[in-house]
Amino acid sequence: MIYFLDTADAAAIARLADLYPIAGVTTNPTLIAREKRPFTDIIKDIRAVIGDGAMLHVQVTARDADTMVAEARKLADFVGTGFHPKVPVTAEGLKAIRRLSGLGFRVTATAIVTAQQALMAAVAGATFTAPYVNRLDMIGGDGVKVVADIAHLFRIHALPTRLLTASFKNVQQVHDVTMAGAHSATLPPDILEALIRHPLTDSGIAGFAADWADAYGEGRTTLDLI
Ligand code: E4P
């Protein structure tokens, strides 16, 4: 299981990459637009933080396959090694996924909400498929069930395509997809941080600190005692 950061905020990426070995960064047009800065500056800043070669997923914005392929080619030069074009699974998107995979691109098929969309993207040659868990949950669907079905389909059809689960709003969704057989998840910064935190961990540490301070003095560590 590997975690990506789902954000275009270079400062947040820098902060979290320092505390956890993230596999890379995924962006989408909404996340990029939220930064309110030139597109090229955003991508350059993210690349500077994660380093050359780290995976950076950038979504094409056209609706037709020809322009999607042209975008991916141009983005590849700009984004550099580790670039993954993200292509939404529509009819035109599937066409582009097949063409780009044939050209050697490692494509991430995105905006997936059914297992059949993921299966079709995998057969078209996608390297990653990104099912949107929370968006399904929000309309009474079952995002985790879709992820479990995709994992099952990839296994029984021996497809090498990876599951890059996406769209999370809470820790339980992340835990459930890891149990359902996802290979990776892309998380907003606050959700990655929430995976680490627990009030029992905090109260346990506070108890240790209080007992230690009583015995050896406030602010002292083992460094002061050896
Ligand atoms: C993934 O590819 C998308 O960027 C993202 O996870 C969508 O998440 P949202 O539903 O929080 O917008």
Quickly describe the structure.
About 50% of the residues lie in helices and about 15% in strands. It is α/β, with parallel strands linked by helices and about 230 residues long.
Explain what the structure shows.
With 226 residues, the chain is of the alpha/beta class. It has eleven helices and eight strands. An eight-stranded parallel beta barrel has the order 1-2-3-4-5-6-7-8, surrounded by seven helices. Strand 5 (108-112), helix 6 (115-123) and strand 6 (128-131) form a beta-alpha-beta unit. Helix 1 (10-19) packs parallel to helix 3, helix 4 crosses helix 5 (91-102) and helix 6 packs parallel to helix 8. The protein is globular. The two termini are 40 Å apart. The model has no long low-confidence stretch (mean pLDDT 97). Erythose-4-phosphate (E4P) binds next to helix 7.
